[in-house]
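Lab notes, practical 5.
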Amino acid sequence: RRGPRSATPQQSRRAHVSRTLAFFAGRMAQRGPAPIPQSAKKMSTSPTKAWEIIRKAQGEPTVLPLEQFQNGFYEQESGTVRFVAISDTHNIEAHKPIYVPPGDVLVHAGDFTQVGNLEQVKGFCDWFSKLPHRRKILIAGNHDLSCHRPSYASNCRRFRLRGFDTNAVADEVDRLLHSIPNCEYLLDSGTVVEGLSIWGSPWQPAFGDWAFNLPRGNGCREKWLMIPTNTDVVVTHGPPLGHGDLCASNQRAGCLDLLDELQRRVKPQFHVFGHIHEGYGVTSDGTTTYVNASTCDLNYSPSHPPLVFDVKAKR
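Output from the prediction step:
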């Protein structure tokens, strides 16, 4: 009689990843982050300094191994929804192939174009439409200028767009985005997938002369107050303070008010974002897993694989 067969390397790897995910899930259920000190909240316009105060109270975020999330080679458990997260593709798909692994829900966290002109939007919509995922979630980012009419109009001269009817272009862009099959374009709005609540918002603290910029402090917080409490998956373009937001300049670009709303009130299972290419990766504060899914690196090369995670369905 033959003994049990040894597991293949791929099976062993899947089992290891599953055990690791379960371990971190257990840790997350046991503890959450300490409250943000009031002294830090008063410094929302100085994120790098504010983070030093928060870090002393909460400790460093847990950095999760990328092998848990890249490519989705591990077996999906029954009763879960598989999310595939990408961001900041910047029309690179027109020149270089981007491998997008299979899953139930494909999430794009914005900056799907370089400057949001009509041809770029058409190219993206054609590519995104061909991806086979049964549900798709899309938000805009700061580079997607034609998705934000005030920014598109004010940047006409900068990008030599004079002579165009910016309102007509913005109308056509809106039509194109809403015509992508199986896709929901979220703009401070939400949807539900298998009982899981998802919220999408394109805003970030002012970062150059681009779209969807808001002043730090109350300007940003007004948008984050719109996120329903206990949302399961939050999708924003910009990061929260301290998670995937460290720039090459060694300055923090994340939003303190977003971090505060997420930790204190919303408490999502996952937060997906992009914007800061060099912040690619996954961290945890003990309650929420933060996913910077930026596809492009600082050189606008698609060197960062999509990030994959499973969430237990609530249907």
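Observations recorded by the TA: Residues 99 and 305 are 7 Å apart (CA to CA). The radius of gyration is 20 Å.
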